[in-house]
Specification:
This protein has 319 residues and is mainly alpha-helical. 76% of the residues lie in helices and 6% in strands. The chain is built from eleven helices and two strands, in the order ααααββααααααα.
Length: 319
Amino acid sequence: MRKRDSLLRSTTLFSAATLISRFLGLARDSCIAAFIPSAWQDIFWAGIKIPSTFRQLFAEGSLSAAFIPLLTRIREREGENKAREVSHAVFNLLLITVFTIVVLFILFAPWIVPFLLDFPSDSVTVWTPVAAKTTIPTTIELGTNWRVDAGIWVTQLMFPFLLFVAVSAWAMGVLNTNGYFFIPALAPAFFNLILIIGCVIGSFLFQAPDFMVFLSAAVLLGGFMQFAVQIPQAWKIRYLPPRPVSPFHPQVGAFLFLLAPSILGLAVYQINALISQTYFASKFGGRWDLHNDLRAPAGSVSPWRCRCCARDGVVSPHR
């Protein structure tokens, strides 16, 4: 009975936090549509979409699926100290891997990003005289280089967001394993809230492209806050600060064994989503906002969906 009550309480808290985050996500998308100039909205969505693709592979989805069951099993069989040791080894491995990916992508973004951006050419129509009192419309193509160039540096500015959400997912796994569910589930709401505030304040203080730099800083701050709000509880249970444990710890092999199927499955999905994103952008005039992956608001505020997400999130640590 006590275990069932604990599961019900955890599920309820997870549901409430997820519902708050979903509503703020809906408000975030509305603010992006309202405050970012239309010519720059596609660039913003392209800039955030690429690190979000890697986020699913190295952070939220696959990491939780592999890390939480492993850590739960180690705590039960070998004790809390061993669980901390393994969690620190996973943290160090995650930090090294994701930091390397971030640096490499920033360096190679000028060659990678143009393949993913298919913006329409900007054009203006002028009336050209051809005879006395007669003119005909002429369309002049202005090119798309400025959008591609902007997409490159916006993506470079936003890409470190991946590092923050990766360590945030690690903290969520640690806290879920120890029975803390509300704050980890609420953490994405802080990202949404900061991005909402950034859209409102930045629209009054800056003009593009400075506005995009400001929003890129808001994305990074939001990602950091998503991790920072979990630090007090992780510190309380002594999983932070991380110790210098080798990332080649023997239990890390078991973690990678559990992680590999999730990464392979999600890689297929994410690559398909990125191809679909590029296709939509090319067919709808560069409109990346028509097919983004920051959790589309449609249906995302459903209490039933939040309840299902909560059930999946709390079952493993209670087994």
